[in-house]
Automatic annotation (TrEMBL):
<keyword id="KW-1133">Transmembrane helix</keyword>
<feature type="transmembrane region" description="Helical">
    <location>
        <begin position="39"/>
        <end position="56"/>
    </location>
</feature>
<keyword id="KW-0472">Membrane</keyword>
<keyword id="KW-0812">Transmembrane</keyword>
<protein>
    <recommendedName>
        <fullName>DUF4367 domain-containing protein</fullName>
    </recommendedName>
</protein>
Length: 235
């Protein structure tokens, strides 16, 4: 229970209740209680979950850890089921576009990280019937470093499978983010909510966050501090 207790204490520092009774102080008090009152801290987990459920829209997808499955910012993270086989397929209807063309092809603003500068290449993918694409990807270092951006209103867009204690909560611009610190299997989730196994590939370390109803994945050979620095520079 030690890891759970630590995570709950970390979460207590971020609790906000803008439209609900102010229970933040009580949750913090219980999570920092002496050991003899530790059972109360565990009981407070249910209360903390309730508080998370009433956060504003930009944070309503903070976390849903049920049965070992974590959902955050349009991405699911689940236990690994093995490495992908064969060469991964591209995302549906994937194509290269100039940055300004890509901006016209999506319904959300495409932000460029100031720490990386203009991308070497931009890719858009999975258009709907009106031609609006679901994903825009900025590629750097010959494609070894990438920023995937997609509509934060989407239910799911990517599915990660990871093993080991390599997933942790961090912050980007003062808000929730998730760091996956080791290679992991990444698959695309189509508009019907089905995992496209043919797109599965071994992805590098990844930072996941959401800002202004846009979800982001920053993937590449990066340390956690460097990834957060890049994410904080998105303009």
């Amino acid at each position: 229970m030690g890891d759970l207790e630590k995570e709950l204490r970390d979460l207590s520092a971020w609790l906000e209740t803008p439209d609900a009774p102010d229970v933040t102080a009580r949750v913090r008090a219980r999570l920092t209680a002496p050991r003899r009152h530790r059972w109360r801290a565990y009981a407070a987990a249910a209360l903390a979950a309730l508080v998370v459920a009433v956060l504003p829209p930009t944070r309503t997808a903070v976390a849903d850890a049920v049965g070992g499955l974590l959902r955050f910012a349009g991405v699911t993270i689940a236990p690994s089921s093995g490495l992908p086989a064969g060469t991964p397929s591209p995302l549906p209807s994937q194509r290269t576009a100039a940055l300004d063309e890509a901006q016209r092809a999506v319904r959300f603003p495409i932000r460029v990280p100031a720490k990386l500068g203009p991308p070497e290449r931009v890719v858009v993918a999975d258009p709907d019937a009106s031609g609006a694409h679901r994903v825009a990807t900025l590629l750097y270092r010959g494609g070894a470093l990438r920023v995937d951006a997609f509509d934060g209103h989407l239910n799911l867009a990517f599915h990660k499978e990871t093993s080991g204690p390599d997933t942790e909560w961090v912050q980007v611009n003062g808000d929730f983010a998730i760091w996956v610190g080791s290679p992991h299997v990444l698959s695309y989730v189509d508009r019907a909510g089905q995992i496209r196994r043919e797109t599965a590939r071994l992805a590098a370390s990844t930072l996941i966050w959401q800002a202004d109803d846009v979800s982001y994945r920053l993937e590449g050979d990066l340390t956690k501090p460097k990834a957060i620095e890049i994410a904080n520079s998105m303009k």
